[in-house]
Design brief:
Layout: H1 2-13, H2 17-21, H3 32-42, H4 44-47, H5 52-66, H6 72-84, H7 90-125, H8 132-137, H9 141-150
Helix pairs in contact: 3-7, 5-6, 6-7, 7-9
Amino acid sequence: MFYIVELWRERLKNTAKKDIRNKNFKLPAVVPMVLLMKRLRLTAYVLKKITPEQFDILKMWLKSIMKPRLDTESKIKVEEILEKSSQGEVDIMVSNLGKSLDNIIREGRKEGKSELIIKMLAKKFIKLPDGYVNRIANLSDETLDKFAVDILDMEKVEELERYFKD
């Protein structure tokens, strides 16, 4: 949730007030993939009752909707899951897609957190020492959360080292 709020805060901060007041202004949607995943799980029961032709159409639709929004590795995983799935394996397909989407969402959040932390550090300390960007991107999600909260109390760039000692 912190990540979503920070995305919106950043967007509002960098958008002119007149643009925000425009009725067409919208904050970025961060939740749709999560909703899609929940809907996939809830519709597994209905999918068991469709004809094989309808099931093939559904698989083509899922590919066309999901693949353009995914990175190369995720596209391959989704393609494999959908190709291996038959109508009798709908529960497994939905579960596998759900797990893949969970991983994609988790990685996206982690990447977004690290990018936001890097921006905050760059603003606070003006220049980050070489190598810190990659090191921050490789931190665990829990460490990134702690890092984000602690940024406000940091006074010297050297204080960053404590997050990389593990």
